[in-house]
Automatic annotation (TrEMBL), chain A:
Motif Q motif: chain residues: 7-35
Domain Helicase ATP-binding: start-end pairs: 38-214
GO molecular-function terms, A-Z: hydrolase activity
Native species: Myxozyma melibiosi
Major place of residence: nucleus
Coiled coil: none
Name of this protein: P-loop containing nucleoside triphosphate hydrolase protein
TrEMBL record, chain B:
Main location: nucleus
CDD domains: RRM_ABT1_like
Keyword field contains RNA-binding: yes
Region (Disordered): 1-136, 311-371
Record keyword S-adenosyl-L-methionine present: no
Keywords carried by this UniProt record: Nucleus, RNA-binding
Compositionally biased residues, Basic and acidic residues: 1-11, 31-51, 321-358
Subcellular location: Nucleus, Nucleolus
Name listed for the protein in its UniProt record: Pre-rRNA-processing protein ESF2
Family (UniProt): Belongs to the ESF2/ABP1 family.
Compositional bias of kind Low complexity: 311-320
Biased amino acid composition, Acidic residues: 62-72, 98-118
Amino acid sequence: MSAYKGPTFESLGLSKPLVEALGAMAIRRPSQIQISCIPEILKGHDCIGGARTGSGKTVAFAAPILQKFSEDPYGVFALILTPTRELALQISEQFSALGASMNLKQAVVVGGMDMVAQGIALQKRPHIVIATPGRLADHIQSSGEEAVAGLRRIKFLVLDEADRLLTPGFAPDLETCMGVTAKGRDRQTLLFTATITPSVLQLKDSSKHNVFLHEVETNSKISIPDTLTQSYILLPSHVRESYLVSLLSMPENEKKSAIVFVNRTTTADVLRRVLRAMEIRVTSLHSGISQRERIDSLNRFRAEAARVLVATDVAGRGLDIPQVQMVINFDIPADSDDYIHRVGRTARAGRTGESISFVSEHDVSRIQAIETRVGKQMDKYEGVRESDVIKNWLQPVSNARREALMDIEKEAAGLVGPKKRKRRA
Amino acid sequence: MGTDTQKRDWFSTEDSEDSDLGHGSGSESENEVKRSAVKKVVKEVKKSKPEKSRKRKVAAASEDDDEDEEEKDVSRAKVAKRKTAAPVFEFGKRFESSEDEDEDDDGDDDEQDEDSSDEVEHMPGASSGTDGDVKDVLRRLSTKELEDNRARIEKTGVVYLSRIPPFMKPGKVRQILSRFGELDRIFLAPEDPKSYARRVRFGGNKKRNFVEGWVEFKDKKKAKLCASTLNGQIIGGNKRSYYYDDILNIKYLPKFKWHNLTEQIAYENQVRQAKLRAEISQATRENKAYIRNVGRAKMIENIKAKRALKAEAAGANEDASTSKKQGESEIEMRRNFRQRTVRDRTKSSEPSARDKANEAAMQRVLGSIFS
């Protein structure tokens, strides 16, 4: 600690209680993006922050907001918008950890949860509102002026994962949300993401005032951490499940915590059942299950009750689960930015991690696009032996898969409910 | 009397329910002569296959994941039994087993089965199978035993309770009805889990509630007598008892046996088994094709490697160039796979119809961000 000569959080202008709270979270030295963004935000500038995954973007906006808040605490002080519900909940946790000493009250307004309770919470004017655009727009339209009034005076509007939020799919809801918030110089707008798209960059040029831009610092603007090793396995698409099971049950991977990304909720469901049949402690996170189950399974994974999380892109962004050592791309995403966010779930904050992509015969051009985007050739993953897959896994896994498909069909017909997870003592 | 679909729902709840939640019914079938024998069998099976039960049970694909550990062993025994018996009556047993979980872990016998030619009974030591230790304990029933069995089933009668007094448990039902004669099985359909959850959430009673039930009498005359006597009457008994003023609604179900309750599910289960078998054989075929292809790929690679070696050995000979040409022609693409589309946000690609509709809103949002 004494050898460290660079800037500290105190020198960036944060107050003592905040620095202590950061210390309690084991964050002692500011990262690059924090060093550059925190003073600018404190000065009152709008800000676009781009930094690689797991580099502390959340703290980069949370800390200065709380600093400003402690100087003038009132009503709804900041509104934070995120693309996914789980991310909103995670940011809320970080705010409560940071703001514990200043009696911070916050409301999480996300879909899939009780709307009336959220409306009441909004009426009580929490200090920070963390929301997904759809549900907040719903409240603005239907919960009445009382709930919305607080939002008219916000000092900060944060768009986390801004490149995802600023896509046409979110536009109508975002418009509703922005319609009620404070306008012009009364409000500071902060945009954060790991992958800055040209449309986000255009915003800076089109703006009338001074917008501070922090971009990824290193050469060729690679948003992937150095500590991440990326590799691929070339395989036929119909034996991917067997390869996955083989990969997950290799002796060196047996203890590792892994996220398996797929492109569709149905694939996630099938895969969860298959892995469960192969006695791998697995849970899943996708939009096909209820919000309660989603939170539940994420918590199960966080608490390491489950070793493998099968997820769609809903878990692709922002989620910070330190123990994840391996990210497996069961399907290759169409968008190379999605790939960057996916593999960014591991190798966070200087830890090591590996990502393995399953490249089937249809995915070659996708993986090439990703390699150009990332600016790096991937290596072939040599760990899984074809003979091992054929000998040990092919038949049982394909049987389990067929059975899983039948179960899904049966459940879809409404004949039986889903099997309950067996509780362990 | 409930419809078939309703019935299925209860049974499935039973199947899926965790053991700690308990089951729809506690049934204590006492008539079994062979019960002790069955227990012995179960113990033997347990001894012989202590840990395997939870391992890779895909082979025994018909089993539930959620059964208890001990249950598992029992069900293994059952699987073996099924192999020799007609698939029709597998389900009956399974249904019973889920019903009997509460009291102990023994398997039930198949007394309700009618298909006499296929009937099989547990008996230790009587070997007839080929499948190792489990089948050692199976043997065909003698004709006399079969006749006895059929006569016994013929004699039974089932009554239907259209409502169960609130929170009355199977034990109490048994106590009330057994005044008329010996009972065999009881099944009480548990209430909808949603209504249970709602009640508990609003501070209601946390006890299990049942909506309707079936009770099997060993003697149908007793069943008729019971139904005609108790139907529409208050339960009575001690004036201060909880159920004193509650009314029982009982009907004797003519020409109805216990197995009629389960045959629908038995049939469905049988269909499912058949489908699963077909699916698995299909999967096996695909796997074989894959393995064959892998072998072929290896062979081709080896041939290529050998050729390359030969070419090297030939050194500067002019045929090296020809063999090289050959190699090149082999590398050429044999098949082109359709590649999945790559989406690139940096270039503005053709937007979808929905995106176009939102484009105007998008522009307004972008304009207002740093307003």
